[in-house]
Please model this.
Amino acid sequence: MALLLAVLILLIALGTVAMFLLRHWMPAVASGSALAFDHQFHVSLWWMGGAFLLSQLLLALIVWRFRNGKRLRRGAVAIPFLELGAMVAATALYLWMGATGGMFASTSAPAESASALHIEVTGVQFAWYFRYAGADGKFGSIRPELIDASVGNPLGLDRRDPAARDDVVSSQLVIPANRPVELTLHSQDVVHSFYIPQMRTQMNAVPGMTTHLLLNVSRIGTIEVDCTQLCGLGHYRMKAVVRVLSPQDFAAWKNTEFAHAAAKAE
Amino acid sequence: MPAVKTPFPSRVSAPDSGGRGTDHKIPTGGGGDGDWKPHRGRRGPRERLMRYRMGLGVMMVSSLMLFASVASAFFIRKDSFVFDQLTQGYINDWHPVAIPSLLWWNTLMLVLSSIALEFARRQYFREDVVMDEWLGLARPTIRRALPWEAISLVLASGFVIGQLVAWRELYQQGIFFGSSASSHFYFLLTALHGVHLLGGMVVLLWAILGTLVGRSIESRQITVDVTAWYWHAITLVWFGVFALLKYCQ
Amino acid sequence: MKEPSSHHDPSGLTAARGSDRVVGRLFSHDHKIIGIEYLALSLIAVAAGMALSLLMRIHIVWPLAKLPILGQTLPEDYLAWVTMHGTIMVFFVLTTAPQSALGNYLLPLQIGAREMAFPWLNLAGFWTTALSFLVMMAAFFVPGGAPISGWSQYTPMSAIPAPGDALGMDLWIVSIGIFCIASVMGSINFIVTPLRSRARGMSLMRMPLTVWSWMVTAVLTALSFSVLFGAAIMLLCDRHFGTNFFVPGGLVLSGKLIDHHGGSPLLWQHLFWFFGHPEVYIAILPGMGTVSTILSTFSRRPVFGYRAMVYATVAIGFLGFLVWGHHMFVSGMNIYAVDAFSAVTLVIAVPSSVKTVNWLGTMWGGRLRLTTPMLFAIGFVSFFISGGVTGPLLAEPELNQYLHGTYFVVSHFHLIMAMASGFGIFAATYYWFPKMFGRMMNETLGRIHFVITFLGAYAIFLPMYVLGLAAHPRRYAQLFGSADYLQPLLPIQKFITIAAFITAAAQLIFLWNFFWSLRHGKTAGENPWQATTLEWSTASPPVPGNFLELPVIYRGAYEFAPANDPDFHPQWLAEEAEK
Model:
């Protein structure tokens, strides 16, 4: 039994490591901050993976070595040095992880800048809507009682407000590459979470308050978005697509959409 | 053997107290093992009492956490700004409820009720009272403790009725449970406190009935003692609730 | 308030004889009977919880499958199962089994007491828990079915009556309210009994670590469940009495403007997790104590660093109240609060690491006897490591932004809270079964049960780590219809489902072993494991009143000396201990 148990633990420990190394499980990286995330994650994972492997192997070793009282020790009942040592080592490791995590966050997060493109994200059971301020650069007012997706006003834009009339509402998030984008999130009904795996980030969209997410995407293409906060029966299919365009393409897209909205407002 | 509080030190230490002297907390009936700490195992007349007091303490700490959780919700709610769809900005919608001045009278009644019950509690630990009851010579608690218990119960009922009248006053001003954030907390906290007090009143009624039907003095000692401490704790909680509603809005 | 008669009758013989009838037994205030009643309740609950998890596993990979009786199931059914699986497992299994069941049975035995401090309160606590369980199960059978908003019941979803969160949700709240009261009733006994009813010579530092962990757990229970109680009351008021604690204004749900304004969804999250995080330790601390005892007994070595273990238990209990915010890193909470919660969370990993080192130190240099309880205890340590190492990763807010709400978290807390705690319960059941029923459980069946469960549990939860790395959000009813990048993960999900079925089937071996051994197991005798703690000094099962004569304690709880013969020194024997 000792042999079997030791082998089982060994197999599980090595199998776990193999599983993590088998392939790169995380989705492709789409932004600079995601690259920094991957670095920090892998460093932390190596440390904790090392601790995992070491303890599991030690466990297997103990099971094997001390079976049936081979190598009996009178042994100490407590070794203060060992315990203090373990405590200090663990504290140092965990605090180091916390500190480096904090440092990488402050260096890699996209800085808030005046040139940032502001987009409003609204979570609704079970879809995401994205609102652009339109030609005037101002978000118009919203009245909840006007919300009605069937008449093409899923956000309840108050058309009497001139600032609202030219707002563009899209079901796709279209953003330019290499330009800071500030998302302002909120929700119409329950708590959602705006999760962009390729940018290694998420933020809850909470009714009654606004939250913010800063992006700076470097790769042109499409990126998928999920909801990671249980929001109802359609939670699993609450998804969206981010289209990252080159600055020229984005300008073109913006011009047509804004012109279209302006025409509709007339 | 019930516990007593000896009002004056007796000259002679109890025969089986292990010669530990007169100041010891177990005047009689304690274990004779001098090297052993008291209050351990089922030894001594106060043991059961201390056990119940400690149990009550745990319960009160738990209750206190309940009030603390509502109070922390109160502060968070009071200072929170919510996003308003109309103005597209953050606004604070806290409108304090004017606390009825009747609550001062209610507080007074509760304090008096607590004091009355404390008098009753002390009667139960007087040596002469306890000995008479224990030996079956007389039933002095009926004369000496019962009136205090009754007064306490009446005053507490007065408090509860006063609280209900205060609610009615608010209703007449058109302030209901659901009216505003402040009224939520006013009604919730007073109701939670009232339910706690009602629970205590049921136990006190039980103690009074116990005295009338002549339950054993040991049981009644514990009932009254624990109820009295509970009462004091509930009174303190009321101070907290009242201060929160009156001065922290 | 009436004193149980056993107090006047030293051996308690007459008290138990009077309660021989079935009804008398059901309502007996004897802590051993109450413990077994709790155990039976949690056995029923764990069966229900596991059945729900299997239904969930089927729905994730075969959403179109027609199930017997249930027929075609829908995503909302899946969410109802998720909610009820979490609720039943957390409250009626992980809180009930290690603390209320095993603790009730063993705590008085281990400190040399005849009874809990308040036997009648204990009895009331059990029946209140049973009532709470009935109310919870009733949620399945009311119109609208069980709630679908997850065991954490985030507002405003849970605060607004809606399809899926109709009457079932109200029953959920009421049931949890009742459970809170029952838990506080139970915790009073668990704190007062070890403080006031210990036998002579049983100093605090001679108490078995199980008693320490039950006591600390009870403190956590008393402090945290009343907060949940308060939150539940406010939630119920929001649903039915027109208050606005948790629901902000201007919500439009299913096309309808909700008549609420001004509440804060974050307030619910704070209150819930202020309870929810200590709850995690309520589930694991008793298992830690059990495993320390079992590792020591079957290594024939004292617990390594007994005092450090006690201090670590207390430290975990204390710090457990300061880390709730790490469930809310992406909730929109204040950024400074995020950093503070992260730091405390990393610190709480330290006492847990110390415990792991001490478990390994206990076994090091011992004479291992790999009995079934020992196997499960070693399994506990292995799971605790595997689940624990990802804790510091999740505690970094920046990493948490990616991993939050994915299967990575599911794996992390299942490995610790479900698997490690579950193995703690299994180890305890195999270990104390002889004491409870006077017969041994079958070793061969126990070993088969262990090997399949150990491998099976790892086969279920380790792949969930990589699902999490691949950004698979949790609580997704099915892959079909969700984001494209998730579709290649279907084979892994299928593998997990198959592993779950095999592991669940292996539990039938345990059930068979349990009920077969009740009648046909080898007779156990007083001290079959040659253990040192006090419960082994009395008959198996213990006589009414626990001990014929109250024991006197002469030494610490774990005095083993593997090189000597005999290699153990029970707490209740007077002869000089080997120095």
About this structure: The first helix of chain B runs from residue 46 to 79. Residues 7-42 of chain B have pLDDT under 50 and may be disordered. Chain B touches chain A at residues 82-83, 85-86, 88, 90 (CB under 8 Å). Strands of chain B lie at 82-84, 89-91.
